[in-house]
Amino acid sequence: xxxxxxxxxxxxxxxxxxxxxxxxxxxxxxxxxxxxxxxxxxxxxxxxxxxxxxxxxxxxxxxxxxxxxxxxxxxxxxxxxxxxxxxxxxxxxxxxxxxxxxxxxxxxxxxxxxxxxxxx
Amino acid sequence: xxxxxxxxxxxxxxxxxxxxxxxxxxxxxxxxxxxxxxxxxxxxxxxxxxxxxxxxxxxxxxxxxxxxxxxxxxxxxxxxxxxxxxxxxxxxxxxxxxxxxxxxxxx
Lengths: 120, 107
Known about the structure:
The complex is a heterodimer.
Chain A: E1 3-6, E2 10-13, E3 18-25, E4 32-39, E5 45-52, E6 58-60, E7 68-73, E8 78-83, E9 92-100, E10 108-110, E11 114-119
Parallel strand pairs in A: 2-11
Antiparallel strand pairs in A: 1-3, 3-8, 4-5, 4-9, 5-6, 7-8, 9-10, 9-11
Chain B: E1 9-12, E2 18-23, E3 32-37, E4 44-47, E5 61-66, E6 69-74, E7 83-90, E8 96-98, E9 102-106
Parallel strand pairs in B: 1-9
Antiparallel strand pairs in B: 2-6, 3-4, 3-7, 5-6, 7-8, 7-9
């Protein structure tokens, strides 16, 4: 079945970097995009960015574009989200989402989430 | 503006109808999607392209749009529908925007 499995929880110091992985299975990885979304405690959903798994093109949230890098490895059918210069406000649950490129056409699969905790 | 505005909360009694709105200037030109988010779970897509119900979503969920406002309607609300609901759109570059979310309480 279509599945996204994310890497485990991370605890980081302020100013450090974190890299979260997202392993896809059960579908043609290169035919879809991978988005990254986070939810801080008590807050709403925030979109971070996405990568076209086929051509590798990326788009990032304006708010985070200086600190975030999203990559993919087609051989490993995996996507990665790296966030640098971590701050306490980056403490959140991070999700990867497999979605159709363009308008929705039946693919909307979420990973289980990865908790990232940032403390001094 | 790409901002999406939702009411912070709605309350509804079991069996009644809940309507959650999402407003934004860009909505006439973009499809809107709705996610249901329960504590400890990943979000679930409950409505796509304004009014298309994804496979597996109960028929009591419906969507509509009018001008700069889209509405998610839940008829015959059940206790299990208590959750946070988020609207979401995407621009031509594929960048997403989420509304602030609406906490729906089933009384």
